[in-house]
Amino acid sequence: MIPVMDHDALRLFLEDEFAQVAQDFRIEAVTSEGIILRLKVAEGHLRPGGTVSGPTLFALADVAVYLAILSRIGPVALAVTTNASIDFLRKPPAGRDLLGEVRLLKLGRTLAVGDVLIRSDGLDDPVARASMTYSIPPKG
Amino acid sequence: MIPVMDHDALRLFLEDEFAQVAQDFRIEAVTSEGIILRLKVAEGHLRPGGTVSGPTLFALADVAVYLAILSRIGPVALAVTTNASIDFLRKPPAGRDLLGEVRLLKLGRTLAVGDVLIRSDGLDDPVARASMTYSIPPKG
Amino acid sequence: MIPVMDHDALRLFLEDEFAQVAQDFRIEAVTSEGIILRLKVAEGHLRPGGTVSGPTLFALADVAVYLAILSRIGPVALAVTTNASIDFLRKPPAGRDLLGEVRLLKLGRTLAVGDVLIRSDGLDDPVARASMTYSIPPKG
Amino acid sequence: MIPVMDHDALRLFLEDEFAQVAQDFRIEAVTSEGIILRLKVAEGHLRPGGTVSGPTLFALADVAVYLAILSRIGPVALAVTTNASIDFLRKPPAGRDLLGEVRLLKLGRTLAVGDVLIRSDGLDDPVARASMTYSIPPKG
Fold first, then answer.
1. C-alpha distance from A125 to closest chain C C-alpha (Å)
2. What are the extents of the domains in chain D?
3. How much is the average pLDDT of C54-77?
4. FRET label pair with B82: which of A59, C24, C47, C78, CA 20 to 30 Å apart?
5. Interface test with chain D among A88, A104, A106, by most D beta carbons within 10 Å
6. What ipTM, to 2 d.p.?
7. CATH: 3.40.1190.10, 3.90.1170.50, 3.40.120.10, 3.10.129.10. Which one for D7-135?
8. What pTM, to 2 d.p., does this model score?
9. DSSP letter string over D39-104?
């Protein structure tokens, strides 16, 4: 599971393929287990009461594991999410970015699986944990 | 599990508590098992390629089960999602609204659970299935 | 999704391929949505306190969705469970069999997905809900 | 999350409360994040073909996270599993014990959440990943 896309290659891919949301994210690091992805929390990510919304946490988990997979298999734009399981552990406060730390667990021929632990920047306790499965299209 | 909020009461609650997204949704029916909620699919819900995005499906599932619970226990604005599990089954085409059909499975003292089957309007095969758990705050 | 294996064909398959546990199960019906599978609850399925154990509920869900898939695609002995998500809703009392009602949600080329609602025989409220994903080996 | 039950206290609890299965398990360590639990794989845990069965992996995950929670909150015999989500990543070969490494993610007043990575003893790649939620009964 040696990376085939580095930080800059992932960033360019994100800007090309997810143009509408690319400015929300920043790739912090490509790690030995996966990647670390930052979500720059802004007004549009909040719910009334001032916590980050569920769809925003889902989006962070989805993009983070997706990019972690691509960092190992290269830019396969068509990989599709087939399953997501998320535990919401604590309310993520407004005013802090979110950091998603991905562990790749399986890179198979047809399925890839990773999990991600999401923390508010500067706080220890995780706010959410998610595992995501992606179907990889056959080469051809 | 007899409803205590009808269609109009749920609609008003949605408009009050989720003002930013209320116009995206329409309550189709309060049913014997839960509710049916429509997501009016618009440009902002799509991914490149023209399918509805994952975070949009998550939001539909989350709001649908949330409103179904409230239809039975009344307007408890603070119920919190603790777990979500989603199977993405088929790509939802652009140009069709999505309909989420909720079955309430448990309304306990501290936890409520429901699942939702999501279809593109006019098509038989489901595009996603989700189950959601909510923590209900203690009465005080 | 017209069945290609009927009640008797499924029963023979179960006895051949799951000889150790076949006597625990009975196929109640092949339905338009999937199948209904009975687990004959016995002493070995119980936890201290007299409720059916979690691994037993998992096994019922797994076998039920597996057989429902085979009822549509024929006896592919090697389909593998890749994901399971289970909500435990109520304690299943001892002294009642369990009935798992399967809905097949997707029968794709490489993945099949079904969910199952589990009830104690004679009681209305479900004791568990599970969704299961199986990887189908390529033909060849 | 400092442990309040050590290795020996957990072992005694396991023998008292799970007498039927206690001999299958061995507590390897109480760690800073949770515990490590060994399943001594035997004939009864195998499926035809010689891999460890799904219900066995479920049981390992369930007991491991349960004991990890108790190691922090003390012997509350009535905590109940409310949700389990499992990814089956690779077939666990027969002839090797399984090791489940638990990370406690939340120890709340009413809910506790942990995840567990399961490996075959001596092999690097995980065979399964599970997250489990438990409802903690109110003190009284």
1. 25
2. 7-135
3. 93
4. C47
5. A106
6. 0.93
7. 3.10.129.10
8. 0.95
9. E---GGGBPTTSBB-HHHHHHHHHHHHHHHHHHHH---TT-EEEEEEEEE-SPPBTTS-EEEEEEE
